[in-house]
Amino acid sequence: MALFEQIGTTQKVTLDDTVACSCTIETAQTIDGHTEYVLRVQRGPHPENSWRILRRYNDFASLNKCLQISGIDLSFPGKKLIGNMRPDFIAERLNALQEYINQVLMNPILASSLPTKKFIDPDSYSTPFHDLALQYASMSLRTDGVYTLGQSLGPIGWRLRKHYFKVVHKPQGNKHSPGHSTTKHHLIKSSSQSHGKQHTTQVCVTTSTEKDYNSSTRDQSGRDDLILSWTEFGPDRYVDDREIHTVLKNYGGVQHPYIVPIEHIASNDSGALVIRKFYKQGSLKDVLCSAAPCNPFLSKYGSPKGRAPLPLKELALYARQILEAIRFLHSKGLACGHVHCGNVIIVDGVAKLMDVENFIFGVPSFYRPFFVQHSKINNCEAIDVYGFGHLLYEMCMGYPLQDSYARQIADCPDTLKSLLESILSRDACKSALPTLDQLTTHPFFSEYAGHFNDLYATTISVQRPHLKFSTTAKDQLKLAVQKTEARVRDEQRSVKNQKRLVRVQEMMTSEEEKKKIKQKAKHEQKQAKLRAQNSLQLNNGPPVPPASITATVHLSSSTGVIVKSDSANSITSPQEALMSPPPSHANSSGGNTSPQPPPSAPPVPAVPPGSLQLFADLQQPIPATSTSGGGIAGAG
Hints:
Helix content is 42%, strand content 12%. It has helices at 2-5, 57-67, 87-106, 108-111, 114-120, 122-125, 129-144, 191-194, 208-215, 241-252, 284-289, 297-301, 312-331, 358-361, 368-371, 380-397, 414-424, 426-430, 436-440, 443-448, 452-462, 471-540, 574-579, 609-617; strands spanning 21-31, 34-43, 50-56, 147-154, 162-169, 226-232, 264-267, 271-277, 344-347, 350-353, 553-555, 562-564. The strands form 4 sheets. Strands 4-5-6-8-7 form a 5-stranded antiparallel beta sheet, with helices on both faces. Strands 1-2-3 form a 3-stranded antiparallel beta sheet. The longest helix has 70 residues, at 471-540. The protein is globular and about 110 Å long. Residues 1-11, 174-211, 546-580, 582-595, 611-616 and 622-636 have low confidence and may be disordered. This is PX domain-containing protein kinase-like protein.
């Protein structure tokens, strides 16, 4: 019993397990003859909330082995024994492992699993959550003296800090004192207590006890089987420690035809336990996936093979019943915040909402990573409407919406499509969602569940809804709602600012790339110009100093006009210009070709005498500073 006596002081959990993480393999390094990869992990949108870890190929392989139970096809690179230290192979494997971890983190089911969390964040998720839950639950029931804690049901839910156990009533007439409870005969030591290395394999195995519990709903005394859930308080728990016991006690007395009743609820400084009836058919998500409720979460929902949507009339009836349960909670100043298929039970054709106490526990919502991307979904009613939209979508399509909004909705009646678009379309998420009261009057419910109002009136006349809080508790709940909404808005502003920063960085990067391309083009143009000048110099001989360059003109034999010559440093008479052969060029091998014989000279045209005198005058030296003189080149 020493295990249960070593309970240290615990602090409030401030880590939000729903915040998405990204992982980048920066480089690889060789240490002691093996390759280690440097991983940079970032939680949320802020780069400063990041860290680096070292992982070997075997660590990736162990993760992949635990995730295989999901049935999801992942591209994991195979092992290589020879040549695995070559730099080119290490670079190739680094890219393959990067692609693999991207696939894992982009899948919500795989990303939220404990093996993945421990792989990318070992410091935050190395705590033995299951052992602590077993410890707290057994101590709470020991002092109660009514229930006996049975075996663990394993990781049947998506929350890492919520654990499920089988629980039964103690036999009547048992006079054991609380200190000598028979609980010890039913407590099952988890694998991590005796074999720490086997704890991860517990995630990948369905025990025979779970199979028996899947097929049984009554204990030996004929009573309904019960299930206990232990949940650690989350970052949104704002009810005062002195009031939370009273608030939870009031929650335990909730009565509503569309809310699952609570058999027992208790809490300590770290979390709370809730005991409810166990339903063998499982949640609505189990029904949609044709899954056994006590199978591991990864195997149930990773790649289910039996997905099927609900008939329209059943869909409309269940949706309308869930709406009334949510409206009832809001009428009491509460919020649900956790509307999804995993929190709905179907009992004899009636949909019932479950885990309504999660709001008091302060645990993050299942759809929080989605609605924090939309600043208009910033209050508790809008959050519940948004969750209801996802619930409606999954009932209609048979599979969940894997994005924050629906890009296209098809294969459903027009009224249902209109209802879904009013909640899940991009325009709806960017503007404003309908209220709960507006949803109840939508034409879809009038068309497929028109008799619901009469049915509901008859039901509440038999089972009157009840949930009552003291004045102090109401004030605490009101404050909790305000603080919860404030944290949502803060996170939405943070996400929005980070998105804006990313866009600015992309624009700056684009402008820098354009500038680099422009500079490169200018450089290439300059280089081409220099190459052309060098080629011209090679063709025309060595360059002549600028001071010795004189103006050169040609005299047109036909018009008597002086024109510029293509050759520098010489003045050529018309006769010479006509008689001179073209300049010789170097061949590709660097040598000079033999001079070609000059062509036969054409007849020399007659030149006027005055032009010859002008040409003779041009033979005289010209002062360098002269800027006048008829027909001197450069004067214009």
